Automatic annotation (TrEMBL), chain A:
Pfam families in UniProt: BPD_transp_2
Cellular component GO terms held in the UniProt record: plasma membrane
InterPro entries from the UniProt entry: ABC_transp_permease, LivM-like
Keywords of this entry: Cell membrane, Membrane, Transmembrane, Transmembrane helix
GO molecular function terms noted in the UniProt entry: branched-chain amino acid transmembrane transporter activity
Main location: membrane
Membrane topology: Multi-pass membrane protein
Subcellular locations according to the entry: Cell membrane
Segments traversing the membrane: 12-30, 84-108, 114-133, 166-184, 215-239, 251-276, 296-319
Protein name, as recorded: Amino acid ABC transporter permease
Xref: PANTHER family: HIGH-AFFINITY BRANCHED-CHAIN AMINO ACID TRANSPORT PROTEIN BRAE, HIGH-AFFINITY BRANCHED-CHAIN AMINO ACID TRANSPORT SYSTEM PERMEASE
Keyword Membrane: yes
From TrEMBL, chain B:
Function: Involved in beta-(1-->2)glucan export. Transmembrane domains (TMD) form a pore in the inner membrane and the ATP-binding domain (NBD) is responsible for energy generation.
Superkingdom as given in the UniProt entry: Bacteria
Protein name (record): ABC transporter ATP-binding protein
GO cellular component: plasma membrane
Any one GO molecular function term: L-isoleucine transmembrane transporter activity
Keywords: ATP-binding, Nucleotide-binding, Transport
Example of a GO biological process term: L-valine import across plasma membrane
Organism in which the protein naturally occurs: Bradyrhizobium macuxiense
Pfam annotation, one family: ABC_tran
SMART domains named among the record's database cross-references: AAA
InterPro entries: AAA+_ATPase, ABC_AA/LPS_Transport, ABC_transporter-like_ATP-bd, BCA_ABC_TP_C, P-loop_NTPase
Boundaries of every ABC transporter domain copy: 15-247
Amino acid sequence: MDTHFAQRRRRDLIMAGCLTVIAALVPLFVKDVYVQNIMVLTLMYAALSQSWNILSGYCGQISLGHALYFGLGAYTTALLFTKFGVLPWFGMLAGGAISAVIAMALGYPCFRLRGHYFVIATIVIAEIALLLIQNWDWAGAALGIDIPVRGDSWLKFQFTRSKLPYFYFALALACIAWLVTWWLEDSKWGYWWRAVKDNPDAAESLGVVVFNSKMGAAAVSAFLVAVGGSFYAQFVSYIDPESVMGFQFSLLMALPAVLGGIGTLWGPVLGAVILIPLTELTRSFVGGSGRGVDLIVYGTLIVLISLALPRGLVSVFSLRKEAAR
Amino acid sequence: MTAPLETPLLETPLLETRGVWQRFGGLVANSDVSISVGRGEIVGLIGPNGAGKSTLFNLIAGVLPPTQGSIIFDGEDVTTLGAAERCQRGIGRTFQVVKSFETMTVIDNVIVGALIRNTVMRVARKKAYEVLEFCGLAARANVMASDLVPSEKRRLEVARALATEPKLLLLDEVLTGLTPVEAQTGVELVRKVRAAGITVLMVEHVMEIVMPLVDRAIVLNLGKVLVEGKPTEVVRNPEVISAYLGDRHAVGA
């Protein structure tokens, strides 16, 4: 039984390695900038959803307010760079750290709430943060921040001529989020989180400090999402409150995980690979006002998946394995 | 950590409740309950429905603090400690309504318990497997907890609690609702647990099963300790009979 478990862990790692190599080679064949753009976004959402999955999937604390951390990451990096000339790399770490601290500060009251009340709290807090930023003149208020272009360099993390550096960074980000999840899955925290999700009372009786477990999950999750936000700010080089902190980001982080399999290692990746290209394509093919159409596609997919495969698309693979046994 | 109130000698009881009260609004669930459980004992906590057994259990396990009174465990006042901290001190428990981690495998359920003593995953996994063997669940280690039959789920509750290496194991109706054969297996498991040096306090409904098993029985009625003593004496006690069956039946005893 020990070997069975170790084998699965090793197989996951090897598979992730292979997929990374394949993904890294794709740009050699795909030169179309539009397609490359979609690939960057797909990888970014894979990373974001993987991070969201840590708090909401593994620990079971469904957050629909993660746009807050995404926006915090984006704003921290952009503000530090434009106002103080701090390199985006430090901005990323600072944004991550600020988000983690804020996640815990918010978790302090919110983790006393259970179920739907917690979800509602996360939505409301993110909306409040959005309003605050929209009215904060120093941070550009509703107009946002234009990140000045200072030439292509890895040091300033700006690239105008090619999308490839962004692509590889997004790939690295997705790998890191996946590896962190992989590592945490077989750690004290991973077990505690799943126990908290399944039954907090039983978990507490087995020595799990439920509150601290949730705080830990929130901090890790918020940190990684904020790094994603920092990346996004550099990638689009112009941010405004609605475009980095809007409610749709909270949804876009949650949906791939839900579609692929919430609380699973591969769910977010699988979900992002299917959902994000689909959205981008519907958006461009169904016309300019397509913002609604991609959400309709999402909604339909989610309804179909929850009806047919409540445990997400990854459950197809485990079902086949069980049948083969 | 609170300083020990007295040196934990072998003679001092492992668990003591001193004048414990629990009120839920106007309802008094426990009134002035003082019981003690010695090291290595199997003590049965019995009483009719609504006697306050489960409340007392929750007070001992640290689910809620008592309205009044104190709980001493292993020479330390644990009254203000939460459930997780009491588990750390050596109080393990099962739940009357089983609370398995349904989306996890059987062994993963037990690993959660084992992690409190050792956070190296390989060690915790090995420990969990040993506990499953002890409880006769090793064959089901990689099955999802949701796929277990009720009697197996009860044993999983015990296994999970044992993985935390408790000094005191609180069993909340683990033998209730089982077939006679399953109940007998359960009784043997409880004996094995005690043989491993773990003190057992069990709430149980079914007198025929509990009485031969326990060293001592404490009868609760209407939130108070009615009598306590050897099981053979307790079952013949007129007060106990009248509490269970009503006054008319106590006359003949």
